[in-house]
Amino acid sequence: MNFLSHYYFDRDINNCYHILGIVLPDLLKNADKNIILHPEKLQHTDKNINSIIAGWNKHLAVDRYFHSSDFFATHSHQLKKQLLPAIEGSPVKPFFLGHVALELIIDNLLLTTGKIQVEDFYTNLATCETAAIDEFLIFSGLADSSVFLKFYADFNRSQYLHTYAETHQIAYALKRICMRIWRNPFTPEHEAQMNEVLSDYRDYLLPDFMSIFEEITNKLIAI
């Protein structure tokens, strides 16, 4: 799941460090795909660091349930098939595209149906002290946190997740993600055709997209 879908499960938690933790695995991956941390079983003397770890573990649990669900298997496959004609000649792997496109559509639906407020998400992150984030990273084994902290400051400053509420921007967000792996993933023609597919699939998912959140919530309660 993407940032805002992870936030949905803990949107009522009043602890900025926990909120940071639930999106931190993806933030680190976006900052530098070579950063690999495993703080899952660590315990710190600072409660804020432990809150980040708790959020991190919640992220892993949600992703595990999401990626093993019938919802994910069905819709990522259908999106892959529908996007294939739209990206003819592109180097992007179809499975990757279907996977990420589904996650972006779900984030869009959460925003456009009012299930979450992106301002609340960013307000939480802004409350976290940089020193605590730095301590978590060092404690987890990251020798140099400067690359991530610069990325994180830019992420908070740009607040680009607001654009996820604009359905026509989903293809652009998809391109940005693909550009981390492929230099020129899509032509303008690709993007235009992708927008049509993604908009139609977004409307198709609208009536029943909350079923996956209900399913995962029930599994989390049962832990």
Automatic annotation (TrEMBL):
Could you tell me what this protein is called? Acyl carrier protein phosphodiesterase
